[in-house]
Amino acid sequence: MRIQMLAAALAALPAAAQAEMARYELDPSHTSVYFTIDHVGYAKTLGIFPGIEGSFQYDSETQELGEVTVTIDATSVDTFHDARNEHVRKADFLDVSNHPEITFTANGGAPTSDTEGTVEGELTILGQTQPVTLNVTLNKAEAYPFGHERFVLGLSMDASIQRSDFGMTYGVENGLVGDTVDINIETEAMRMD
Hints:
By secondary structure, the chain is mainly beta. It has two helices and nine strands; from the N terminus they run αββββαβββββ.
């Protein structure tokens, strides 16, 4: 019996050894980054960042994650109101003339189930870097049924930050604009290897 168990364990080793990280890229046409923030206590204002690119390494068998890099074009922010967009791009908020990019980097994650986990990384806004934890849900993992036909991970993520942690304090003290920013990310990440 012990010999059979040892043989089975040895037979499994080559398969485990073959498992390796694959590179994934966010599909820009199927990636959305949006946020909500309180406006004078009446309602939350919605904004999106259409300009985003990113990649990461991932092993679907071991759930190992690494080399996460995401870059958001801060100038692309859209709150569906022209005057507000201009204000958000100025020094009171994103100061895009001096800080045109928002970045997120991470080197690992912590799975809590086959489809959920967290990714702890560093978010840089206005040149200031703070730790941020993303809650991640894997919606689907299989070959795309048409078009590029690559293996795709469908992911939903969310996090909350305090914008004052990044030095963005306009409207916080007098309650005009909330400090908490709720962030949601929906993406289809294509395996490139």
